[in-house]
Amino acid sequence: MIESSSAASSSASTAPVGEVRTAVDRFSDMFICQLAAADPYFALDIGLGLELDEPRFRDYSPAGEDDFTNWMSGLKVELQLIQSDDAYDEFTRAEILATIERQQVLHDRGLHLKDLNVIDSPLQRIYESLSFMPSRSDVDRERAFALLRRVPEALAGYRASLEEGVRSGRLVGRRQVVAAAKQCKELSNPAGFFRDFATSMRHPDRGMDETAVARAEAAYGEFDTFLRTELAPKSADIESCGRDEHALHIDHFVGARVDVDDSYSWALDELSRVSDEMVRAARVIRPGGTLAEVFATLRADSEQRLSRVEDVREWVSHVAETVAKGLRGREFGEQLRHDTLEVVLAPVSGTGIYYLPPQAEEDLGKLVWSAGEDGLLDVAKWRDLTTVVHEGIPGHHVQMVQGTLPGRHRNLWRSKVPGGSGYVEGWALYAESIVEGVGLFSDPAYRLGYLNSQRLRLARVVLDIGIHSRIDHPDGGAWSRARAEVFLRENVVMSDALQAYEIDRYFGWPGQASSYKLGERFWWDTRTAFLRARDDASPIAFHEHVLSLGGGRLDNVRRALDLESSNDAKFAG
């Protein structure tokens, strides 16, 4: 049963949003607060925080998922009876309805019963919820330990759903099970994540809850055993989800209907074009040298490498300042007022680089960097500059802090929920290409790194669609894991460990990998259409308009901009 609470509901009055003035705004804030009470990962991921004194993880058991879906279905009926007052209401309404309807479809198809992968499943959401917890006050720390005590309970419910999936024939791919078990083993380490978390939350005068730490570690250790000895033997050999299920996932992640056959052909053509451009760029660095030789030269260049966290922090700060200076007044206005980033280490290895938005106005956005077992980072400036832009400025960081900007008519949904992967990741790739326009990648080594990153995103479209919609390999015949590994190795320069992680990700997370490049196409198409439609249009005005909406499906953004272009008064306020 999903219950509201006075504590959760009070969040609407303290969140940094404009005055609530419509029935849709009030519904949005109620929905967000109740959802935050039911799912702390959602609350913390969007920076809302937890207001419950006894927070619980979302109930991932079969009965819990039934209750969650039934609650959402009831709210859908209620929202459909509410009239929109303006175009912002229409946008909010469309976004909430899309969220509810996806939950209904996932539940009806029983896909929650096989929800396990290496990057975004309940296995990760449980421990990552803890890593999001603030520690500014005694109350924050007490809530953090209260949630830590719930780890065994949350994993038990999740295990019940995976067991029900086996009984009902909804099987996880075996490779995903094995890779997830490895993550559980890391998390069960007595000197690992949970102890580090508890140490960071410890009150200097009270110590920490050693029992809660030990039980959380033991729970993940038991889950490791369950995955290896019970789930893996009953899991599926075939990792492709098939065209029907893939259509559901790619529509969600891109945020619009996708013609997978056309997108597959387009990505192959673009991949060929970018690869040719990389060869030309490499010849500037080393005339007569092959692409492989140039990459070897860059990898061997000690001036390009950073391994200490302090050095990476200094470099990231310099990049952020340089980019902000180049774009301010040209592409962006007030959206670049947050131009400082913090660099922190990831709780487990093998997760690459990702962004965490501020949890409060006074916080900094964070670049979370995965270190090796020796605690050192593997940063190559020529390779990773484009990723810093993607995750930072003007990428995820600029897009996700817009809810904290003053003077916006924003309900909690539009100010806090970042939008789908096509909106968020497509924006970040779009941001990389904007920065290319102001000369950040003018250095040949940095340009080669940028092109290599673009080649990766195009290869992801080919792999995701080819594997899961089961379109033939460019050389004919079906895709396999072995063919995917060869294709990625031929088209992307990365370490063996990162390649293994990427392949697990593509097979275990259908639709998501395509959303980056397909989302970028949307942003550039929309920008072009916007600038053509208005005599007084500018890139700054375009960014002001789209970021004022808040995150959402790309097709809803398009509809909102069409409404706006025909009646500016609808977006006044």
Polypeptide structure, described:
The chain has 573 residues and is mainly alpha-helical. It is built from 26 helices and five strands. The chain has helices at residues 6-9, 11-14, 23-38, 40-45, 62-80, 87-108, 122-132, 138-148, 151-167, 174-187, 193-201, 210-231, 243-254, 260-285, 291-300, 309-327, 381-391, 396-400, 412-416, 421-437, 444-468, 481-491, 496-508, 515-533, 539-549, 554-566; strands at residues 305-306, 341-345, 353-356, 365-369, 379-380. The strands form two sheets. Strands 2-4-3 form a three-stranded mixed beta sheet, covered by helices on one side. The longest helix is centred in the middle third of the chain and has 26 residues, at 260-285.
Classify the secondary structure makeup into a structural class. Answer: mainly alpha
Number of strands: 5
Compute the average pLDDT: 87
The dominant shape is globular
Gap from first CA to last CA = 38 Å
Structure annotation, total helices: 26
Which spans of ≥5 residues are poorly predicted at pLDDT below 50?
4-18, 563-573
Strand content: under 5%
- The neighbouring-strand order within the major sheet is 2-4-3
